[in-house]
């Protein structure tokens, strides 16, 4: 399915039921990994609840807060449309059915963990989830492809973590304020 053009306006706010079902779709579509990519595809491209910029803002906030990113993202999306009740509904949609399936899969794994088929199946799931994470990275990079400062901050952050083994919290405490200072809205001088 092709992405909607960026100029297309988001649809009206989803109802509580639509929010619940949409978050369930995100959770079930991405079973095994790639939540950010599926979340973007469903929320922005298919259902058009948000534009790409609003989604990326929420994703950034979700990644900076403690806890699982997509749980934070579900709370962000739900609260954006319906406040506390929307956050709770989105959270339930994200957790209810996947949690139940996870419990059933855990029980099955407990009894079948010694078989080679299960081992190969898990190896395939890991590979697919790595691909989905890369897909989301490329989508975000494409959004900022004409912004050399954003690309520089991203590259510096990647190098700091990968080559110099800088931990996430110190990196966020340094790179976050620098990026906010650079992108903070400024007044233009009046002629």
Overview of the structural elements:
The protein has helices spanning 16-29, 35-46, 52-64, 69-112, 116-143, 148-162, 168-183. By secondary structure, it is mainly α. It is globular, with a radius of gyration of 19 Å.
Query: Largest beta sheet, briefly?
Result: none
Distance between the first and last residues' Cα: 48 Å
Number of strands: 0
Q: What's the overall average pLDDT, rounded?
A: 84
Kindly estimate the percentage of residues that lie in beta strands according to DSSP: under 5%
Structural class: mainly alpha
* Low-pLDDT residue spans: 1-7
Labels describing this entry:
191 residues, mainly alpha, globular
């Amino acid at each position: 399915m092709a992405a909607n053009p960026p100029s297309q306006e988001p649809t009206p706010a989803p109802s509580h039921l639509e929010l619940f079902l949409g978050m369930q779709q995100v959770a079930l579509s991405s079973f095994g990994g790639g939540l950010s990519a599926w979340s973007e595809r469903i929320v922005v491209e298919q259902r058009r609840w948000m534009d790409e910029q609003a989604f990326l803002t929420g994703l950034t906030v979700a990644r900076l807060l403690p806890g699982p990113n997509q749980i934070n993202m579900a709370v962000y999306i739900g609260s954006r449309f319906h406040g506390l009740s929307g956050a709770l509904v989105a959270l339930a949609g994200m957790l209810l059915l996947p949690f139940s399936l996870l419990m059933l899969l855990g029980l099955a794994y407990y009894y079948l963990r010694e078989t080679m088929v299960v081992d190969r199946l898990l190896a395939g799931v890991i590979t697919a989830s790595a691909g989905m994470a890369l897909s989301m990275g490329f989508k975000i990079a494409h959004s900022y492809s004409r912004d050399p400062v954003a690309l520089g901050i991203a590259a510096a952050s990647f190098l700091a973590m990968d080559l110099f083994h800088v931990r996430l919290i110190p990196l966020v405490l340094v790179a976050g304020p620098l990026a906010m200072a650079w992108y903070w809205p400024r007044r233009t001088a009046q002629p």
